[in-house]
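Protein record

Derive tokens from sequence
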Amino acid sequence: MATKQKIKILDDNNFRAEIDELYELTDQVDLAKWSISIAKHILHLLGIDYNLVNEIVEGFHSNELWQQYGNSRIQDVRKSGFAVHRLARETDNEIYKTALRAVGQAISSAHMREHSMVASDYATKVIGLLTSNDINAISNEREWQLNELKRVIKKNKNIL
């Protein structure tokens, strides 16, 4: 069953559909790895060194601990995701706010797998905001996301 987009964005529906199909077959740990990779990718594109933002460092760490056989409590992961969303609410810059939403959703992917697709959508929205909705740039981002999901799955061989 296809996931429903929770935010309004200009998108490459074909690439998103491919991602969605693969998402449905992928286990939650690999989805968490994928969404954290997307978040780091978007932060890198914006020139944001997430190592300088304690809430993001702690959130990524909490998610990565969870990936390692549940070595983090879900309530800790959720708390970390909420901390990043609080940062998003505190900024007036729409691009940074959207990037932080992608990060918060990626962190929360340990809580619910659906958060990984929402992180992917927010990352796509960032590209749209950066490029005045250039569909080629948006398609390139979606293609990168699809290839990254395939890479994570292949590396870990975790497909349901």
